[in-house]
Amino acid sequence: MNLPGTPTRWYSTITPLERERALDKGARLLLEGGLVAFPTETVYGLGAHTFNPQALKKIFQVKGRPPDNPLIIHVARSSELIRVAEKVPPEAYLLAEYFWPGPLTLVLQKRKDVPTEVSCGLPTVAIRIPSQPLARELLHRINAPVSAPSANLSGRPSPTRAEHVWDDLAGKIDAIIDGGDASVGLESSVLDLNSSPPVLLRPGGITREQLEECLEKKITVTEQSASSSPSSPGMKYRHYSPQAPLYLLVGTLEKIEQKMKELLMEIENRNITAGLLCSQENKVGLYFDGVLIEKLGSREDPGYMAASLYNSLRRLDERGAGIILAEGIEERGMGLALMNRLKKAATEVIRVS
Ligand code: TXA
Ligand code: MG
After folding, report:
1. Using CA atoms, how far apart are residues 59 and 273, in angstroms rounded to an integer?
2. What is the CATH T-level fold of the domain 246-351, as seen in this structure?
3. Contacts (Cβ under 8 Å, ≥6 apart) of 24
4. Atom of ligand 1 nearest to the CA of 119
């Protein structure tokens, strides 16, 4: 599989016949040790059979992924947890009951027979059940856990459409199953259940507030600064980067708009094409010609804004933005995950109030 020069197959899933063929081929390729990109509700994943170390190694190669950044295991049902994890605490089943299938990943004790390529030597594994129907059906068909990071080149914004996967990985992987736009658009929340209280390693599709309500207690949220021994290895890398430098403005909308105007005037004088990543309410774009504007949606609906973030970042690159100014929002609900990604993408965070 995936011999040099092997073309990447693109499978549409619009008609029932296409869907059937995509799932059949996808499952077969995974069982044979191939790499298959498939849609999930968060972002597209690049899947390999969890018990095939060679296939797992290829994931790291094709993504250019740092060798110490472990993979998330995707399973079809909670009863499969014990195929990859051990000493599963009751809290895991409670969370599973509430949020699975869905955008929550649980970090649990690893079973010894899970290849070390999945966990990168850690004694733990990260697991989730995706809710996207094609992902679920694929997992059912291969009847084995599938390890899958996001299907982008490391350092690029995660893929929320099949085209994004194609742009990053065509010619390097065996197949892409096209399931349209990802509905959540940001990665799953990663919750570590190995300490008390549990630690939210990565905010994502299930909010901190939802997790605390389910567990009936406060959880710890990891700081985003890089540390020498991060509990979630993925957190120390600068992720989600567009090609242009991104400046994230944080404060009230009024103050942000004011600062954006100042910066845009400066940028205009320097002959650089500016890109604006902002809410629907932001009116700054009206005052300038030639500014590339990507509106994410209303500030009232951070979930909607989150769903368009990665596509907008890619669009600003394609459209030739030389510098990006992004509007920050309140870090509540899905706003926490959105701001987490924006901060990681940012060259600098500018506070304006
Ligand atoms: O929504 C998602 O989670 C998507 C879709 C495809 O499921 N996947 C995804 O995978 O975002 P990836 O590889 O881009 O991010 C996995 C994150 C990384 O931050 C990694 O460090 C963390 O999960 N992780 C994996 N195993 C871990 C472990 N044993 N302990 C702590 N963190 C872990
Ligand atoms: Mg990723």
Report:
1. 35
2. Rossmann fold (3.40.50)
3. 141
4. 29
Pocket test for ligand 1, best of 109, 114, 152, 232 (most atoms within 8 A of CB): 232
Q: Which residue has the tokens 């892409």?
A: 176
Distance from the CA of 118 to the center of ligand 2, in angstroms? 14
In this structure, are residues 34 and 55 in contact, taking their beta carbons and an 8 Å threshold?
Answer: yes
- Rounded-to-integer distance, Cα 199 and Cα 273, Å: 41
CB-ligand 1 contact for 202 (6 Å cutoff): yes
Every domain of the chain and the residues it spans = 8-182, 246-351
Q: How far apart are CA 337 and CA 214, in angstroms?
A: 19
Q: Which of 63, 69, 195 gets mutated to test ligand 1 (max ligand atoms within 8 A of its CB)?
A: 69
pLDDT in tens, 135-159: 999 999 999 999 999 999 999 999 9
Ligand nearest to the CA of 152: 2
Residue with tokens 């804004």: 305
Ligand 2: distance of its center to the CA of 313 in Å?
15
Q: Is the CB of 233 inside a 6 Å radius of any atom of ligand 1?
A: yes
Report the Cα 163 to chain-centroid distance in Å: 16
For domain 8-182, which CATH number applies: 3.40.190.10, 3.40.50.2300, 3.90.870.10, 3.40.30.10? Answer: 3.90.870.10
Render pLDDT for 202-212 as a digit per residue (tens, 0 to 9): 999 999 999 99
Closest C-alpha to ligand 1, atom 19: 234
Q: Which ranges constitute the DSSP H helices of 123-206?
A: 133-142, 162-169
Residue 81 to residue 83: CA distance in whole angstroms: 5
Round to whole Å and give the CA distance between 250 and 259.
10
Q: What is the pLDDT of residue 271?
A: 86
What is the residue type of 281? E
> Ligand 1: does its nearest atom lie under 6 Å from the Cβ of 201?
yes
- Give dist(CA 22, CA 6) in Å, integer: 18
**Whether 81 contacts 114, CB under 8 Å:** no
